[in-house]
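Students often ask why inverse folding is considered easier than folding. One informal answer: many sequences map to the same fold, so there is more than one right answer. In these notes we will look at a single instance of the problem. The structure comes first.
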């Protein structure tokens, strides 16, 4: 299926998207209003769950995994809402479909970039393992250990080319947050308002991930939203809390906002001078303590990255299956609406 893409509407931070979605005087039945309120109340609670109990928990691997899990739940929620609205694909406006398909491709591209960077960070664990393996031997092996740690530093400070496009994609998603005008479908109006919330939270979470993986706050933006949703207050609170902490983290000179990676880097920096010129027998105990500490921190980093990778893959799968389901339904609707094509297909099957 191919449609000419319409140009994105400019993002107006202080406009009101619901003049396009729920114009003044529009009517929603009690059932539709209940569905919308239930969705937005659920979205509010999911947004609140993104705010950690302590600043120290921000942008840890466990927080990022929870955030990705939240994204999975939100996108599953909106699929459930579509079913409850009893709004078949044949009743979807072409503009809705174009927006959905365009956004889904962009989100899939971002997921691929993130998975690539998680894999890159995990590959750095091999350097650490090699370095640690050589710390139990002779001075010659200490040289090999230093070489491995040098390789690890170079590896984690390298840039992932796939991340470069993420910020441009996120900018595009931000600019297109305002959704198409809904004229005659009450169910469509509910869906568009729900989709607005899903897209806002999705862009915010993925933006935080992009900043974390890139190691720079240059592209960090305080996403502006409209004060007409049940989840607005919760979102603003989480947005401000996390954005301020990320800026503070980078202003302190840290190489990354990812806490576990920073801890490993600190451990390597403490260990490296000790093995640089060989280890004095009096320093053997200190070497053992620093080695044990680095081993523990490195394993925690690797394990956390593995869990995050699985959750990122789950989000990718949810996006992909949702897109495939829509395209499948569109093909079915197109075939059913063209009886001549159905008859031709039957005749071809008979010939076979």
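Output (designed amino acids):
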């Amino acid at each position: 299926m191919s449609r000419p893409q319409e140009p994105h509407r400019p993002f107006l931070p202080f406009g009101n998207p619901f003049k396009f979605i729920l114009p003044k005087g529009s009517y929603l039945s009690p059932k539709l209003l209940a569905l919308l309120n239930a969705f937005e109340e659920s979205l509010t609670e999911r947004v609140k769950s993104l705010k950690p109990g302590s600043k120290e928990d921000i942008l840890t691997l466990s927080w990022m995994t929870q955030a990705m899990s939240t994204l999975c739940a939100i996108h599953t929620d909106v699929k459930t809402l579509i079913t409850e609205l009893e709004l078949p694909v044949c009743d979807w406006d072409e503009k809705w479909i174009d927006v959905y398909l365009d956004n889904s491709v962009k989100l899939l591209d971002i997921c691929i970039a993130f998975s690539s960077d998680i894999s890159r960070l995990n590959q750095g664990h091999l350097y650490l393992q090699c370095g640690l393996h050589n710390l139990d031997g002779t001075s010659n092996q200490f040289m090999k250990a230093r070489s491995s740690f040098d390789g690890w530093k170079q590896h984690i400070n390298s840039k992932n080319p796939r991340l470069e496009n993420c910020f441009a994609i996120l900018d595009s998603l931000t600019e297109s947050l305002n959704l198409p005008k809904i004229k005659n479908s009450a169910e469509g109006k509910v869906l568009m308002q729900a989709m607005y919330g899903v897209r806002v939270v999705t862009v915010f979470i993925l933006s935080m991930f992009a900043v974390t993986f890139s190691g720079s706050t240059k592209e960090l933006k305080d996403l502006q939203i409209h004060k007409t949703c049940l989840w607005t207050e919760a979102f603003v609170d989480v947005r401000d809390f996390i954005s301020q902490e990320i800026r503070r983290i980078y202003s302190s000179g840290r190489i990354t906002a990812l806490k576990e990676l920073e801890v490993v880097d600190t451990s390597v920096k403490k260990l490296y001078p000790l093995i640089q010129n060989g280890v004095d027998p009096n320093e053997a105990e200190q070497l053992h303590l620093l080695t044990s500490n680095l081993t523990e921190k490195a394993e925690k980093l690797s394990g956390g990255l593995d869990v995050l990778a699985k959750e990122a893959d789950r989000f990718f799968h949810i996006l992909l299956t949702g897109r495939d389901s829509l395209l499948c339904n569109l093909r079915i609707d197109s075939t059913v609406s063209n009886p001549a094509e159905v008859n031709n297909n039957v005749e071809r099957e008979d010939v076979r």
